[in-house]
Predict the 3D structure of the following.
Amino acid sequence: MDAFTPLLASGLEGLFPRGILPYLVGGLLVGLGATIIYLSTGIIAGASTFLESTLSYVSGVERFNRYKYVQSRDWRVVFTLGIIAGAALWGIVLAPDPSAWTTDVQWWRLLGGGVLVGIGTRLGKGCTSGHGVCGVGSLSETSLVNVATFMAFAIGTAQLVAALGVSP
Amino acid sequence: MSERESALFLPAIFVGGLVFGLGLAISGMARPEVVLDFLQFEDFGLLFVMGGAAVVTGLAFFLATTFLDRAPLTATEYTRRVKEFDRNVVVGGVIFGVGWGLSGICPGAAYASVGIGNFPILWAIAGMFIGAYAQGYVRSRLANTAN
């Protein structure tokens, strides 16, 4: 065991250079946040519907003004404000890390990728939280297919972009 | 929202969002670099974020649908998240995947990123609204011409 432990540790360090704990604690809290909303209200919250329901405040386009968006748009704004406040509590108050206050990823990647995320999550009926966390937690086949698809294409795209020499 | 809604409804949503955002910030998912490291196989930690979160919600869905009846604040019946499958689920997944791989940021993590003070992420949020608007506009037009 004594000989084995460092071997295991070095293997894990290669796979998890930042360690495992922040990821696990963060993930459990993400699940707990969704659970608080679910148990108190019965709502299974996803983050990307906010994009469309919020557009109903300013756009007359029929799709955004469907009943289910208009009747949920207020609490979705509150949900998003909660996410921002929770992240600020950690990133600015409890564990300020100035290196996280910006990103080196180039603006055109953020903007172009963002456009595709906006189209894809709404066309595909959910994102990393709706399908990835709640859908997988529900063992929904629709969500499992969606998650497998976006994971595969995200990995392929990120590797391709890196191989083309774009960094970051 | 119905008039019968509890005064605790919006506070509960806010507290849930707060814990959700706290988790996204602690996990590092609010930083595109961390997500890109995962997608480039340099750091597999993100598996614990999605996995850990899905286990918690999965447990909550199972316990609530098995042992509980209705949610206290809305009287809504507890259900699991099961959406209908169609071609859009796959096409949308492909487009989302390419966008996530290009930018390293997804909607919930983008909101959290604003919270940690990462303002360049507003490029991505602007893009998400543009993309959501574009698909809604085109789909509304298509639905009207089909009628």
About this structure: DSSP finds six helices and no strands in chain B. The CA atoms of residues 110 and 121 of chain B lie 7 Å apart. Residues 9-146 of chain B form one domain. The two ends of chain B are 30 Å apart (CA to CA).
